[in-house]
Amino acid sequence: MKKFVNDPQQFVPEMLKGLALANPDTLTYVPEYNLIMRKSGPSDDKVSIVQGSGSGHEPAHVMVVGPGMLDAACPGDVFAAPPMDYVYETTKLVNSAKGVLLLVNNYTGDRMAFDMAQELSLADGITVKTLFIDDDVAVKDSTWTVGRRGVAGNFFVIKAVGAAAEAGADLDELMRIGEKVVSVTRSMGLALTACTPPAKGAPLFELGPDEIEIGVGIHGEPGRRRAKIAPANELVDILLDPVITDLPFVAGDRVALMVNGLGGTPISELYLVYGIAHDKLEALGISVARSYVGEYCTSLDMAGASITLVKLDDEIEGLLAAPAEVGVRIF
Amino acid sequence: MKKFVNDPQQFVPEMLKGLALANPDTLTYVPEYNLIMRKSGPSDDKVSIVQGSGSGHEPAHVMVVGPGMLDAACPGDVFAAPPMDYVYETTKLVNSAKGVLLLVNNYTGDRMAFDMAQELSLADGITVKTLFIDDDVAVKDSTWTVGRRGVAGNFFVIKAVGAAAEAGADLDELMRIGEKVVSVTRSMGLALTACTPPAKGAPLFELGPDEIEIGVGIHGEPGRRRAKIAPANELVDILLDPVITDLPFVAGDRVALMVNGLGGTPISELYLVYGIAHDKLEALGISVARSYVGEYCTSLDMAGASITLVKLDDEIEGLLAAPAEVGVRIF
Amino acid sequence: MTSLSDAEFIVRTIAQTAVDNEKYFGDLDSVVGDGDLGFSLARGFEIVLKDWDSFDRTDAGTFLQKVGITITGRIGGTSGPIWGTAFLRSASVAKAHDGELGGDDVVAMLRSAMEGIMARGGASLGDKTLLDVLAPMTDAIEQGVATGQGGAAVMASAAASARAAAEATTPMIAKRGRAAYTGERSIGSPDAGGVAVAVIAEALAANWDSPEHTQQNTAN
Amino acid sequence: MTSLSDAEFIVRTIAQTAVDNEKYFGDLDSVVGDGDLGFSLARGFEIVLKDWDSFDRTDAGTFLQKVGITITGRIGGTSGPIWGTAFLRSASVAKAHDGELGGDDVVAMLRSAMEGIMARGGASLGDKTLLDVLAPMTDAIEQGVATGQGGAAVMASAAASARAAAEATTPMIAKRGRAAYTGERSIGSPDAGGVAVAVIAEALAANWDSPEHTQQNTAN
Ligand SMILES: Nc1ncnc2c1ncn2[C@@H]1O[C@H](COP(=O)(O)OP(=O)(O)O)[C@@H](O)[C@H]1O
Ligand SMILES: Nc1ncnc2c1ncn2[C@@H]1O[C@H](COP(=O)(O)OP(=O)(O)O)[C@@H](O)[C@H]1O
Ligand SMILES: [Mg+2]
Ligand SMILES: [Mg+2]
Ligand SMILES: [Mg+2]
Ligand SMILES: [Mg+2]
């Protein structure tokens, strides 16, 4: 394994420490609970918004704490849902008179940790609601599975409820907005390479030199099927078609289009993918009103990309356009 | 080769097209000259600033065109200086009564293309000056070489002259500021993996599973020496020590610290590196006043990182803090 | 069975086995899962071992409850809530019971643990989870106890049954956990959590008559 | 020598060789350079071939000048300015000369091209660049012309000398171009640009008496 890492067990804490050192005016790091929160702390005039998840998805979610986005993030170790205590302690630390909204990507471990933390917090008299995000169309939503996974689409949920919370919306209103965004957001990803968790020190699965993994999740879980590498035009079809047909998105729709890098794919390739996807959507009469290209929800060093579409209405478009400020910046 | 690419020869044009489609309100793309410029065009109240270079370094430089940064960027093909015509045409397109400043990383091909374009532009009556950037301490600055390379430090030059130009500084003033920033900026990089140019379709050099390349440039040129992978603490020493001793940076200095990803290294690792470097600098009495973590100047999909330090004075610090807006954004 | 010392032996063996098998459990979980099982269990049970002396030892039930709180609160992934629930449920059964715990009580504790896991994570038997190992293992213990076997013999047959059950998960399709997302591709490799249970059962069986267990018993 | 048709043959052969060897030249440049030489030359000379019919053919000098402008303006990397300068300098010598160009003129054109390259890129002989191949190759042509050899024979000895010179760059330390950054590590592989010159010289020698060249001569 070739990575910038000291003791693999300290990978997450050392990353969080660096994040806090780089953003001393805006972020507070609470090492005991892997917790990153706004330096300004919670306000009783605003619902506090928290997202937790496994680590390894940076910038999600520790690097999107800031005005207009999250109030705190409590990640677990790499690809492991946070222990329940982390969530519970985070909830207590950001408690606001207007309540706390917990955003959770739909995975068993995360659901259970947040469920239990919510129970404990409610027992403490904290008003808490939990919203589950499940935008991944790669996973069939049949009765025998655990439902769809939450992947890069969670960015839009955070952005929308973050903006609404800043404008004073109450907890029920945020739940309504968040559920609406989830209901119109769909994603699909593919991997060109496997990722290597520091603690494992080796790739999570083997891909041949010309193989790709389609419908991969963000935890290095293998996807639904393997295929041969193909020209970018075809790869975009593989990602875009199931997304379009799922909601479905139809001619006349206005959408936000996100091309998300999985960690090891350079931004040059992401823009190339963006251009192709944009053209295909416009050809279908679907108009791209907002564009997002870069890394939003990664899988460590995995090369690959996902495409997310959000069907816009005036409310969602306004919330996405609202200003926000986060710890990751280039200035 | 596993990449998002159609025809490798169209890699750069397709990327630029995507960039322009994603930023329809702010950027104009001129396919004939690989040119990305501000949609608003040049203004006679402001010196126009242009940077060109080979492609493959994104976001440098096509993705940092915008208010407070570049007026235009004219990249060549992957790792190849732009043909002289591209530079000349760009200069004509952004011509302003206050003149044009050309920023050039110090490589033979780039120098020659910009020199010739400057000659032609001057003959056309356009006021042009050229500033060379050479921040890479990995290359010894002896008489028999072509001098040092320009690497990620070019970001600070762009940012400083970009801010000053926006405030109305004239061309001579920008040259003074740019030269000052170059004189206090030093960088050093290392690669964990080689990069794969689309047209070559294979890695530019071979690195063993536990080998790293120290002092690597941003074009996949091999570096000065090879070493074994080591803990992040040691890798940071390898990067930081030659940077610190070169200027030298000394106790009492205020600096900007940049940890730049080379394209394939996830931001989690970059923050981990940042935290280590920050601590080491503070231990030496060098205080980190501004922090930059992310991808600024990459080498396609190369895993690795570089560290840049800028010695700050009030003028430079003020210019770095000035607002700017570029095409790459996460909102 | 001197309940507290048995509980101590069992918890310590589970913890030590989790720490010792970090890499192996991680590799098992990376076949069709996300590879974090080993890390999660090892980090969590390290905390159990570190806090070992601090757990209230009023009785076996109290001890198990304190351990369960640590596991629930400090282990990440799916395993924290699942394994923590198992310990907390076992603890409740033990606490409800006055005096020394017999073989029947152990069976009741395990059955309650399984119900807790099902309630917490929504899995049923046949979903290719550790439940598919816990259930036959518990049946084996019940049968051993019913036929009057000694502790070591009961544990040996429990371990054999756990191992066989773990292997029997190989042809199943995962319907819970990260592996479920791969659908049919989860066929062909055993459930990681189930194998972990079998490995732990084997460690318990192997050490049942070891000095650490028997001396501990004597010491109490 | 009917100058224009010779110039056309030479330029076309150079262009075709650059296009045909894109991968090979790129691989050579990636040993210690950045691998773009093949791509830059191929894309640039493709433009030359595409615009082939449009170049002003008033005389050989004018033709070479128009080609040189295209190369200078449209080839990226170091090669555009370097190769473009070579063509522009050769063109100037040819234009200054009235009437048919002889062997001496070709030598003068090459010497002027080398001076132009040195002025543009600052390299000297021994810096491990294509100059270290151009110089001995030009010497060989000069000698062939002086001893009254025919065109094919002159080109054959030029090619042999270019190949030997390209190989002789292997032990040199690069002092110009991207390879220079690797210092001592540039020792042990030949200069990419120098090998490209040798390959082109060999193509010219191999085809000197081919129908494409001789028929072209006859046609004019
Ligand atoms: N819903 C569930 N109920 C019971 N056991 C489960 C459930 N989901 C997963 N498991 C068990 O947990 C194991 C994986 O644990 P772990 O790796 O910690 O969780 P995650 O799947 O969140 O990464 C599986 O091998 C399986 O035995
Ligand atoms: N300053 C120079 N003068 C003459 N030739 C040079 C110079 N620098 C490089 N070269 C030649 O150019 C070749 C590399 O060309 P190319 O790959 O296009 O340039 P770059 O080094 O910018 O990538 C080298 O192999 C060498 O022969
Ligand atoms: Mg997990
Ligand atoms: Mg180059
Ligand atoms: Mg797992
Ligand atoms: Mg080159």
From TrEMBL, chains A, B:
Pfam entry (one) = Dak1
Q: Where is the DhaK domain?
A: 7-330
Q: Which UniProt keywords apply?
A: ATP-binding, Kinase, Nucleotide-binding, Transferase
* MF terms in GO: ATP binding; glycerone kinase activity
- GO biological-process terms attached to the record: glycerol catabolic process
Q: Which InterPro entries match?
A: DhaK_1, DhaK_dom, Dihydroxyacetone_Kinase
Kindly provide the name given to this protein in its UniProt entry: Dihydroxyacetone kinase DhaK subunit
| UniProt organism field | Microterricola viridarii
* Classification of source organism: Bacteria, Bacillati, Actinomycetota, Actinomycetes, Micrococcales
TrEMBL record, chains C, D:
**Residue ranges occupied by any DhaL domain in the UniProt entry:** 5-206
Q: Name one GO molecular function term.
A: kinase activity
Annotated keywords: Kinase, Transferase
- State the InterPro entries in the record: DhaK_L_YcgS (IPR012737), DhaL_dom (IPR004007), DhaL_dom_sf (IPR036117), Dihydroxyacetone_Kinase (IPR050861)
PROSITE patterns of this UniProt entry? DHAL
Q: Does the keyword Transferase apply?
A: yes
| Pfam families according to UniProt | Dak2 (PF02734)
What is the name of this protein?
Answer: Dihydroxyacetone kinase subunit L
